[in-house]
Automatic annotation (TrEMBL):
Upper taxonomic lineage: Bacteria, Pseudomonadati, Pseudomonadota, Gammaproteobacteria, Oceanospirillales
Residue span(s) of domain HTH asnC-type: 3-64
GO molecular function: sequence-specific DNA binding
Source species of the chain: Marinomonas profundimaris
Protein name: AsnC family transcriptional regulator
Entry keywords, A to Z: DNA-binding, Transcription, Transcription regulation
Entry superkingdom: Bacteria
GO biological process per UniProt: regulation of DNA-templated transcription; response to amino acid
Record's GO cellular component terms: cytosol
InterPro entries recorded: ArsR-like_HTH (IPR011991), AsnC-type_HTH_dom (IPR000485), Dimeric_a/b-barrel (IPR011008), Tscrpt_reg_AsnC-like (IPR019888), Tscrpt_reg_AsnC/Lrp_C (IPR019887), WH-like_DNA-bd_sf (IPR036388), WH_DNA-bd_sf (IPR036390)
């Protein structure tokens, strides 16, 4: 879908505050409510807007550790990749996972309560199918996270 300037404004405002009412959004982008709602519905149905969710403070919900884990697989077959990816998708502490180029095959972002919690997560990861090596990098402090996409 090709977004025009109005669609870009809608997306920018909704990324910053997904709880805006249609009337508030329409006022902010200088459009009447009906065409604004029609555009939002079109952005949703086309999949540009995937959904709406609350952004939580990790520390306040007891997940103060963020760890970036690089994983190398023993095998690079489609069977190995599919088995690993399916297993990772089912781990609740893995909040993002990427197939990457370079030294590692995958880069995972994991949240944990503390080191003991992370140790349990690490042991579970070591038992995932086809895992050869795991390297962990502990985040000391978030500089920028959950930023809106630059439109």
């Amino acid at each position: 879908m090709k977004a025009d300037n109005t669609d870009t404004q809608i997306l920018t405002h909704l990324q910053n505050d997904g709880r805006l009412s249609n009337v508030e959004l329409a006022e902010q982008i200088h459009l009447s409510a009906s065409p604004c709602l029609r555009r939002v519905k079109q952005l949703e149905s086309s999949g540009v807007i995937k959904g709406y969710k609350a952004s939580l403070d990790r520390k306040k919900v007891g997940l103060s550790m963020t760890v970036f884990i690089e994983v190398r697989l023993k095998s690079h077959t489609s069977e190995a990749s599919e088995a690993f990816e399916e297993s990772v998708a089912n781990l609740p502490n893995v909040i993002s996972a990427y197939l990457v180029s370079g030294f590692a095959d995958y880069r995972l972002e994991v949240v944990a309560k503390d080191l003991a919690d992370y140790e349990g997560i690490l042991k579970a990861m070591q038992n995932l199918p086809y895992v050869k090596d795991i390297h962990s990098n502990f985040a000391i402090r978030a500089i920028k996270s959950d930023a809106p996409l630059p439109l």
